[in-house]
Design brief:
Length: 351
Amino acid sequence: MADVGPQALCAREPRVPAERLVAEMVPPPRFDSVRFDTYNPDPAQPSQSEAVTVLAGFAAGLGGAHATGSGKRRWFSKKPAAVSAPRGVYLDGGYGVGKTHLLASLWHATPAEPALKAFGTFVELTNLVGALGFQQTVQTLGGHRLLCIDEFELDDPGDTVLVSSLLSRLVEQGVALAATSNTLPGKLGEGRFAAADFLREIQGLSAHFRPLRIDGQDYRHRGLPEAPSPFSDEQVAKAAYATEGASLDDFPGLLDHLARVHPSRYGALTDGITAVCLTDVGPVPDQSTALRLVVLADRLYDREIPVLASGSPFDKLFSEEMLNGGYRKKYFRAISRLTALARDAKPLVSQ
């Protein structure tokens, strides 16, 4: 048994300074060690191998001076470097085909010190703008060699325009861009639907991106056992008390607590947590709650924190109306990631 009982996420109200938001713009722990040569392309999907080749070449091409040639860092040239178009790549594909693995590999492969490369999700980027302000964000990221944006979201017009404006300013300063997003589940196999949406929504930036289609099945379910069914309340509680660093919360109470914590702090909410144990999991009651849960699922997945739960299985969290609505990409991603974390949590239950 753990020396101390489980913590409660509901008891935490973290405060995150803006400096931490900037410092944490690196690939999450799950992707610390990924590289192009650790990506396992599906032999049946040649687009996956092609993406590795293109991205490796893109990274190598970023080894020269900053595109504007301006600034004071020692690697800037005195004259503006010739910039080959496009200056960005966009990875277009379904769920679990390894886009984040490839994006993180690009970050690692780009020949620049970590302080000159930034990696974050679309939500984290909008949170950074909220914390620093638009102009300060441009100044902070403007000297970077590369900005990687995972899970670019097209379902919020205001945020999309905000980020489009930000990227336009960064491109002017010579920052290379890379982004991922998901093809809608109902649109898989319909060519470059998501890429067309992406390039239209980011307006004048289209010329700066080369779309790369990555086909394939969700690797989280490829050749792996089905996710375990939910456990009993007693099993979850016992595992929480037996696991050092685990948290234990009832799911409805956690959903209420998330409404009182800004999503930019959800990563800090899980600091030091080794496993999240939840009782009484059930369908989320409304869209706002569902969207907050999506952000939490992303942060848990990034940090490889297993999730042990009782109640309803994770594929029953979102109503059919939600899964068929405008935010369905987010909900399918959350289901996929929580399912993977539930599988990771299975060994926590005593045999």
